[in-house]
Amino acid sequence: MTFLLALAACVEPGTPDLSDWTEGYEADDVVVEDPARFQLNASDDLGYPMRLGTVDDMELNCGLEVEGTVEGYEEVNCRIDQSELDLYGSGMSFDLYIPTGTCEYVVYQHPQFEVWEVGTGPTEVSFSFNSDGTFYDEVNSINGVPYCQYDYSWADQYAPNCCTGTYQITATVEQDDGTSLSSTSPALGWGGLESDCYDGAAFWNPEASFAVNGFPLATIVPLYGAEFTKRFEWDALSTDYFSNMVLASYYDPNDHDGMAPEGLMADYSYTHHTFECYDHAEELLARITLDVREWNEQSEYLDSGDPDTTGTEPVTGLPIDDRDDWATGTPGTGTWIQFGL
What is the reported pLDDT for 303? Predict the structure, then answer.
């Protein structure tokens, strides 16, 4: 799978200024469990507990040895487990380590998803009106103003316009003598900007760079076989959000009628954190994917029990599940987060 295909669901990659990429990321500052492996590790100085391991076995290190050929391609799927208030009130951090002689380039991308449903608007708008200004026979129009169901600013001034595509207006005026005149406009745009309707860790990333269309860019780091270490950090969600969904990328298909949540199936959605190792010719040698699962109760987290317990807390009477994740934020199918984020 080429790099371009790997990013087809997102946007074109971006290359940041790499002149000082090592500043603040010396190897001594980053956890390295096995110096021979391309790997992600839990940061060891967080002040709160979190686990980072493989999806199949959370006790195993999230890493792999890179053989160095396309035929030797390997990937590992990993997960972070973190309690819900730690994620909401402290944010998230983990470390990446790539040993010498492993990758010519590393490319990483973070999750993003559709918060408000994006859609193509109708192609035809028409209405008639009398000389006194009364409108009638309206199609995709409200009092002469073109209407698209995906422009949510009609209902709330703080909601985005997610309506794309073009339309033409056919207006007919009824004159006093009983005759009518009609005219049709040239093609007009509905004006929606798709990136206004998305969010996720890619947007919340303090190091994010954005394309002209408003979507976060993937990051390409030329290594030429050199060792690479980096810490990834996201701020507490509590400053801007009500839920944990921006960082808690994990979902269970059973909560969505056997499918992914609607917001993760959209055109520009990106489900996992991905870290990809390439050679000089953009051939993919290895990949690590990472998702993040939040836990509702500390006791369950410590016992590696059930992350999705429900009920009420005995002291406050509030729900045990304090912050929405995908299971509660958009249950089933056909639901979007909207203002619930």
Answer: 96
HSE-CB of 235 using CA atoms within 13 angstroms? 10
Per-residue model confidence as pLDDT tens digits over 286-297: 999 999 999 999
Res 9: pLDDT? 34
Phi then psi for 253, rounded to 5 degrees?
-55, -25
Spans of the chain below 70 pLDDT: 1-29
Joined tokens for residue 306? 């059930």
HSE of 257, CA atoms in CB hemisphere, 13 A? 8
Provide the 3-class DSSP secondary structure of residue 32: coil
Bridge partners for 81 per DSSP: 51, 293
CB 295 within 8 A of CB 307: yes
CB 99 within 8 A of CB 247: no
Cα(203)–Cα(247) distance, integer angstroms:
10
The amino acid occupying position 280 is H
Count CA atoms closer than 13 A to 48's CA, side-chain side.
Answer: 17
